[in-house]
Amino acid sequence: MTTAQTVLIVEDEFLIRLSACETFTEAGFVVLQAESGEQAVEILSDDSQIDVVFTDIRLGGALTGWDVAEEARIKRPDVRVIYASGNAIDPTRNVSGSQFFGKPYDPEVIVDACRRPAAR
Hints:
InterPro entries: Bact_response_regulator (IPR050595), CheY-like_superfamily (IPR011006), Sig_transdc_resp-reg_receiver (IPR001789). This protein is an alpha/beta fold. It is built from four helices and five strands, in the order E-H-E-H-E-H-E-E-H. A five-stranded parallel beta sheet has the order 2-1-3-4-5, sandwiched between helices. Strand 3 (52-56), helix 3 (65-75) and strand 4 (80-85) form a beta-alpha-beta unit.
């Protein structure tokens, strides 16, 4: 029996976060959620199993999704990172092996991307 993957969803817009959480839960993922970059970094610092970080880039606090991804790679080098944004991507901030999806995105496409092995 395989264990379910755990995804940390980082999204400051409540309804978007709720929708993403429901989609991932229905797809069999264990879901952790953060409404800010600061909260995401706290979660990344604890003992929780996290396989994938799915983060919006523009967040309401001082930290951006870029910052969350960089912290994730420092604290958990093997974590998969997937970004989403309605704005253009900044390729200089991408962590290695990450993926970017523009908003609006198809939630099932994101779920499929999270299931695939990370490219390194």
